[in-house]
Amino acid sequence: MGPITLLILALLLSMSSAAEISSKVGVCYGQLGDNLPSPSQSVKLIQSLKAKRVKIYDANPDILKSLKDTDIQVSIMVPNELITNISLNQSLANQWVETHVVPFYPETKIRYLLVGNEILSGNDNMTISNLVPAMRRIKISLNTHQLHKIKVGTPLAMDVLESSFPPSKATFRSDISRPIIGPMLQFLNRTKSFLFLDVYPYFAWSSNPKSINLDYALFMAKNTTYTDPNTALTYTNLFDQMVDAVIFAMRRIGFPNIRIFIAETGWPNNGDCDQIGANIFNAATYNRNIVKKLTTKPTIGTPARPGWVLPSFIFSLYNENKKPGPGTERHFGLVHPNGSHVYQMDLSAKTPEWQYEPLPKPINNEPFKGRIWCVAAKEANRSALGSALSYACSQGNKTCEPVQPGKQCYKPNSDFWHASFAFSSYWAQFRKVGGTCYFNGLATQTIRDPSYGHCKFPSVTL
Ligand SMILES: *[C@@H]1O[C@H](CO)[C@@H](O)[C@H](O)[C@H]1NC(C)=O
Ligand SMILES: *[C@@H]1O[C@H](CO)[C@@H](O)[C@H](O)[C@H]1NC(C)=O
Ligand SMILES: *[C@@H]1O[C@H](CO)[C@@H](O)[C@H](O)[C@H]1NC(C)=O
Ligand SMILES: *[C@@H]1O[C@H](CO)[C@@H](O)[C@H](O)[C@H]1NC(C)=O
Ligand SMILES: *[C@@H]1O[C@H](CO)[C@@H](O)[C@H](O)[C@H]1NC(C)=O
Ligand SMILES: *[C@@H]1O[C@H](CO)[C@@H](O)[C@H](O)[C@H]1NC(C)=O
Ligand SMILES: *[C@@H]1O[C@H](CO)[C@@H](O)[C@H](O)[C@H]1NC(C)=O
Ligand SMILES: *[C@@H]1O[C@H](CO)[C@@H](O)[C@H](O)[C@H]1NC(C)=O
Where are the transmembrane segments (predicted)? Predict the structure, then answer.
């Protein structure tokens, strides 16, 4: 290389490191629904939200094609299952990049390549230990193709922390701190990438609503603040407190400068009867307030990093009906699967508050008190109910006695009614040890007693 080439190279490098990261807000485009609009319709919906970035959980070629020639910056993901093989095999890493990135770049503005999703929150030790090596291999492949604009990272959930309170005392979990987080931060530092973080004040608040003020979680607190005794930094919302905990944990192990990218945040617009605070009012309030905070100029940052940009993705584009777990999991969407908005939302934060229609008043901001039953959902697939019924009846103590022939709940003799009884009976026995009212989407909670005649359905009392 001649001196001129070197000079140009140095100039280019200094330009790219000086490139400002924008605070524009994006949206996560999860696809775990069986009723979702096509990729091209989805891109229109993403634009209707004024999202400037989108994160997908794979590298779906139809989606990447649909994003071609838009100004939307894109984050793609290597599936968890491939991490171990990619970590062992540079050709496989190259092949992944050649198949999933090269054909779409630069027309599709791929900017972030996330390796796996919340790997450190799982219990697959093999994948956990191969995570950082896989990130390195993917980075090498991108470099080989001169794809220097694409940052490599991996999303972490808050449970990578052993303690997060007070924020200044936060530490990473001891099982991952030295072997995984250390090398990961080294990689992120060297490649000038981000620590991608999933931050859900909803989960922190809802598991502890008595000691955390809801307004503090919704960026609405007037009087509630928290001052960290060690730093004297004053917090006005839970989100900042959670982000700063991670920042202090990184400082503690010698990486004070790595930027944070909010890979997911959001609030559910609905949930199960036994879930608190999942409603449209809170979801709209949280998302509108955080978008305003993140896009305000001059940049606000957090108490530990005033003025730092926090690029981010809101979770999620759609309510996704095939996500397992409690009802909130299926209700983080900004948009219904039929394309209508769950509430008005502008991710550019340019819509003034007064232009929004009034929101429905929240009715579940206090813990529910009373009885709850678990019954077959109206829309449950009738031919799948039989095996769910058998499963529920095979668990616990005399779960299904009353639906046996001749007993008080035998009639009406249908899978729908028998399953409803069995689900209630199962859930009443097992909720306290973590049993859920889900049954692959066949079951739903209700506060209306389904009992009839002499047939009394077991219930959970909160
Ligand atoms: C990983 O590689 C092994 C050995 O080559 C292969 O048998 C396996 O199917 C691969 N796993 C995945 C998820 O591709
Ligand atoms: C590495 O990956 C390449 C490309 O998929 C494959 O052809 C090769 O067999 C793999 N090598 C090993 C040792 O698994
Ligand atoms: C594997 O994971 C389990 C549970 O997540 C943990 O207790 C154990 O120490 C891990 N084993 C190794 C070798 O890292
Ligand atoms: C804030 O504090 C003032 C005075 O302590 C009190 O009158 C007011 O009701 C509080 N407001 C809220 C929203 O809690
Ligand atoms: C990487 O680490 C060095 C040395 O601690 C520090 O000066 C630099 O700011 C760090 N860069 C990033 C992006 O964290
Ligand atoms: C779209 O779906 C939602 C939720 O099911 C429903 O409330 C709404 O009325 C539907 N809108 C249209 C236009 O069909
Ligand atoms: C309903 O359940 C049956 C049995 O599990 C399955 O074969 C069928 O595909 C399901 N139908 C739908 C529409 O999901
Ligand atoms: C079933 O009954 C046994 C004996 O009474 C008891 O130890 C066990 O906890 C019961 N199981 C459930 C799920 O209630």
Answer: none
The answer to the question of residue 366 being in a domain is: no
Asked if residue 13 is part of any domain, the answer here is no
**Phi then psi for 236, rounded to 5 degrees?**
-115, 0
Q: What are the DSSP calls for 413-459, one per residue?
A: --HHHHHHHHHHHHHHHHGGGT--S-GGGTEEEESS---BTTBPPP-
Count of CB atoms situated within 10 Å of the CB of 458: 19
Phi and psi torsions of 77, nearest 5°? -135, 135
**Closest to 267 in 3D by CA, of 167, 365, 160:** 365
Q: How distant is the alpha carbon of residue 252 from its chain centre?
A: 26
Decide the pairing of beta strands 73-78 and 109-115.
parallel
The pTM is what?
A: 0.91
Give 382-400 pLDDT, tens digit per residue: 999 999 999 999 999 999 9
Looking from the CA of residue 381, the nearest atom of ligand 7 is 1
Ligand 5 centroid–CA 257 distance in Å is 6
List the domain range (segments joined by +) for residue 438. 371-461
Say if residue 408 is in the same domain as residue 453: yes
CA max distance for the chain: 94
Atom of ligand 8 at shortest range from CA of 396: 13
Q: Give the Å distance between the CA of 85 and the centre of ligand 1.
A: 6
Query: Are 442 and 299 in the same domain?
Result: no
**Residue 11 falls within a domain, yes or no?**
no
Q: Which of 355, 387, 403 is the last residue of a domain?
A: 355
Q: Does residue 263 share a domain with residue 166?
A: yes
For ligand 8, mutation pick of 394, 395, 397, 431 (most atoms within 8 Å of CB) = 397
Sign of torsion, CA 212 215 216 218?
Answer: positive
Residue 8 lies in a domain: no
Cβ of 189 less than 6 Å from ligand 5: yes
Q: Indicate the DSSP class of residue 168.
A: G
Residues 142, 213, single domain; the answer is yes
On whether both 424 and 332 belong to a single domain, the answer is no
Q: Answer for the pair 248, 303: CB distance below 8 angstroms, yes or no.
A: no
**Positions of the chain with pLDDT lower than 70, given as ranges:** 1-19
pLDDT value, residue 17: 41
